[in-house]
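RECORD TYPE: protein structure
NAME: Winged helix-turn-helix domain-containing protein
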Amino acid sequence: MSATPTLKLRARIYCGEEIAMGPGKADLLAAIAEEGSISAAGRALGMSYRRAWLLVDAMNRCWRSPLVETVAGGSKDRGARLSATGQAVLAQYRALQARIAEVEASDEYALLRSGVRAAPLPGAPDPAG
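PREDICTED:
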């Protein structure tokens, strides 16, 4: 564990109770764009095809337009690619992540961090016994 307090912010966009976009889904979109298939993207990220497919399905159900388009069959064009919406969502989400990362360099964060102990004090005894 780090002796220096750290700030961990993650942007998650919800669609009801479902995460429509978060860091892992953004990484999956980027891998699909790079690899050209859901299975290859899943392998590149160390996840099963089923897990990758479930994440793609959730994204496609949450956004007004699908983020990932698939082409099944034996043609040379088979696989998956980001739709125009998927490309835009990924770019906008990455820009949001970059802005969130800037917070760590902020004066507000530095002031908060300076007041946090390296480790918590032992817990107080339970007054109930």
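COMMENT: The domain at 13-108 is CATH 1.10.10.10 (Arc Repressor Mutant, subunit A).
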